[in-house]
Amino acid sequence: MNKILATTMLAFCTIAASSAFAETVKIDITVKEKDVVIDNAGTVQPMWTYNGEIPGPLVRVKEGDTVDFKLTNDPSNKQSHSIDFHAARVDVLDEFESIKPGKTKAFTFKADYPGVFIYHCGSDSMAEHISKGMYGVIIVDPKEGYSKNFPKPDREYVLVQGDLFEPGTSADDIKMGTGWKGVLVNGKQFHYDPVHDQNATKTLESKPGERVRIYFVNAMINEAAAFHAIAGIWEQVWDNGNPKNISWGLQTAEVAPAHGMIFDIVSPNDRATNNALVDHRMKHALNGAISVLMNHKDAPAGKGRGDQILLR
Ligand SMILES: [Cu+2]
User: Fold this and answer.
1) For the domain bounded by 155-295, which CATH number is listed?
2) What's the 151 CA to ligand 1 centre distance in angstroms?
3) What's the 20 CA to ligand 1 centre distance in angstroms?
4) Which end of the chain is more exposed for a tag (fewer CB within 10 A), N or C?
């Protein structure tokens, strides 16, 4: 075997190895209590966050991977905080314990189940910590990859729905829903809806006929989300995002608090169309939970791909 061929084969083996075998993925997150912009007008509210963002950073691993995780509670914070990964099987009193400002907590877990999972703060009062923004998404891609029952999408978007309460609402009132103000989609009311909010500048986009995969997570503390695509039908829906839990041709699916599901939509390929992806509970939709998906031939190539899966 000549040297060039040997080198090529070695390179090929390295790529194959990295995609076929489980890896250890290192994730560090810092809790920051800070003022955060909660709508398209630039309104700021004191919130509690993972890495300063609502939702926290998108974590994506493959089924079978080990997550090597470290949580830091920033020394400038006032509260104890924690993290609860729904993708982990560990000890709630150990890995998920609360840590004081200035402390760190490191642990590992194996992502044994494929799907889309929430992570959130579990510190007392959990209602207050979650509703102030302490949640995010971990996607665990199935180890067998794509298949007939879990086809490769053309674009992917993450949508996380959370509560917005009036600033200064007490933990007890938050728990009972008093002082509720609206719904944040990826951290902002009407984040991707220029129809209902003149200050909105972003939309989800795809080309006609493309398969768009929505990773939907409901981080609301007390209420389910009735996820529906106006002027569309969910081609396939996977409960918890597990390829085994497949449903076909759904109009609306209920996503429980602290649950996630995968929704695919395929637009007609012979015309431009628009969809509104909504929580069909009117109280939720009309207070922030509407996102526009524009299907048109000029959709930017990078949108819904790479680092533009969760649009900030
Ligand atoms: Cu917390």
Assistant:
1) 2.60.40.420
2) 37
3) 36
4) N
Tell me the average pLDDT across 249-276: 98
Place of tokens 């609860």: 84
Query: What is the CA(159)–ligand 1 centre distance, in A?
Result: 21
How far is the centre of ligand 1, averaged over its atoms, from the C-alpha of 305 (Å)?
30
Write out the DSSP string of 196-208: T-TT----EEE-T
Q: Which amino acid is at 146?
A: Y
pLDDT tens digits, residue range 10-26? 433 334 334 568 999 99
Q: How far is CA 202 from the centre of its chain?
A: 17
Which pairing describes strands 135-141 and 115-120: parallel, antiparallel, or unpaired? antiparallel
Q: How far is the CA of 143 from the centre of ligand 1 (A)?
A: 32
How many whole angstroms from 94 Cα to the centroid of ligand 1?
16
CA distance 139 to 59: 6
**Which residue spans of the chain are classified as CATH 2.60.40.420?**
22-141, 155-295
What CA–CA distance (Å, rounded) separates 105 from 172?
Answer: 28
Give tens-digit pLDDT for 143-162.
999 999 999 999 999 999 99
CA–CA dist 60, 191 (Å, integer):
23
Local confidence band at 7 (pLDDT 50, 70, 90 cut-offs): very low
Reported as a single tens digit per residue, the pLDDT across 101-151 is 999 999 999 999 999 999 999 999 999 999 999 999 999 999 999 999 999
What is this structure's pTM? 0.93
Count, residues in the chain:
312
List residues, by chain if needed, whose CB lies under 5 Å from ion ligand 1. Answer: 81, 121, 123, 129, 134
The residue with tokens 């007939």 is 148
51 has pLDDT over 50 = yes
- For domain 22-141, the question of CATH label 2.170.190.11 is answered with no
| pLDDT score for 113 | 98
